[in-house]
């Protein structure tokens, strides 16, 4: 495996978070999801990577796309939108801690996440955004939040997750539902449009498929889409992926950078064991 290149040095990353903090102080936004790209040189088996990620992370919204000159390998734990023809559900993830090295440390980190005022506030901000989005198209009074602030544990991280559901009226369709919710609030910020403008100004490169959606839509209008996090783009020369997190006023730059490293660690593990011989 060739050199692992984090696109942003700590100093660069800290400077971008300082710029976001200026927007927070000015009241332009309440939260922004800021990300960075990781590049790993080498020749990798995309099918092997998918199998390894699925086995290690057991992500419920995984996907594998062979696009010819590249492959997209996703081990996403996040549901962007499920629609069964009547009920629409979204499950935003916001709030992360690394897994512990011992059972005791692991339990402590999970408890710390579920009790963190900063993470709880950040999460509830996004749940409120998603409730408003669903409320734009769902029947009045039908939008509810469920399973609030659940801690879900994966191979390398703990996450805070909630569910938001609403009932779509018969005179509304799947396209209207997608337009109301896309892109997901957990990977943009609040308010969404201004957060996206700031992200476009500050992030050095386009995200590509990352934080978009991968899923399916049938001819009856039913659909299910993930949010494309924990997602690799595999080419003959390298693998690229992004990591990031939500930034609010009291975010600690060092802690945010370490969260990025924790998220990257679970993906880098699969690369170490599925490289072709050169």
- The separation of the N and C termini measures 9 Å
Spatial shape: globular
Q: What is the CATH C level class, in words?
A: Alpha Beta
Number of strands: 14
CATH architecture verdict: 4-Layer Sandwich
Q: What would your notes on this structure say?
A:
- The chain is α+β, with helices and mostly antiparallel strands.
- The protein has a single domain, classed as Anthranilate synthase (4-Layer Sandwich).
- The chain is 36% helix and 31% strand.
- It contains 7 helices and 14 strands.
- The longest helix has 20 residues.
Write the layout of secondary structure elements.
Blueprint: E1 4-6, H1 10-26, E2 31-41, H2 46-57, E3 61-66, E4 71-76, E5 79-83, E6 87-91, E7 93-98, H3 103-115, H4 117-135, E8 144-153, E9 157-167, H5 174-181, E10 189-190, H6 192-202, E11 215-217, E12 223-226, E13 231-234, E14 238-247, H7 253-272
Antiparallel strand pairs: 1-2, 2-10, 2-14, 3-4, 4-13, 5-6, 5-12, 6-9, 7-9, 8-9, 11-12, 13-14
């Amino acid at each position: 495996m060739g050199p692992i290149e984090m696109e942003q040095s700590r100093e660069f990353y800290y400077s971008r978070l300082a710029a976001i903090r200026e927007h927070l102080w000015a009241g332009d936004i309440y939260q922004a999801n800021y990300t960075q790209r990781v590049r790993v040189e080498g020749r990798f088996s995309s099918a092997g990577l998918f199998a390894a990620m699925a086995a290690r992370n057991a992500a419920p919204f995984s996907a594998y796309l062979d696009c010819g000159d590249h492959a997209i390998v996703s081990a996403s734990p996040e549901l962007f939108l499920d629609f069964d023809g009547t009920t629409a559900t979204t499950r935003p993830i916001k709030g992360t801690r690394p897994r512990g090295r011992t059972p005791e440390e692991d339990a402590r980190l999970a408890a710390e996440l579920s009790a963190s005022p900063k993470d709880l506030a950040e999460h509830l901000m996004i749940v409120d955004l998603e409730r408003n989005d669903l409320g734009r198209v769902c029947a009045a009074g039908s939008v509810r939040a469920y399973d609030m602030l659940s801690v879900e544990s994966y191979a390398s991280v703990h996450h805070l997750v909630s569910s938001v559901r609403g009932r779509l009226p018969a005179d509304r369709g799947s396209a209207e539902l997608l337009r109301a919710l896309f892109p997901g609030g957990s990977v943009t910020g609040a308010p969404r449009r201004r957060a996206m403008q700031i992200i476009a100004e500050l992030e050095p490169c386009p995200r590509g498929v990352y934080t978009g959606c991968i899923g399916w839509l049938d001819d009856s209008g039913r659909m299910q889409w993930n949010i494309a996090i924990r997602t690799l783009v595999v080419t003959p020369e390298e693998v690229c992926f992004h990591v990031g997190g939500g930034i609010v006023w009291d975010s600690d730059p060092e802690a945010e950078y370490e969260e990025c490293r924790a998220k990257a660690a679970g993906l880098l593990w699969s690369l170490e064991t599925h490289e072709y011989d050169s």
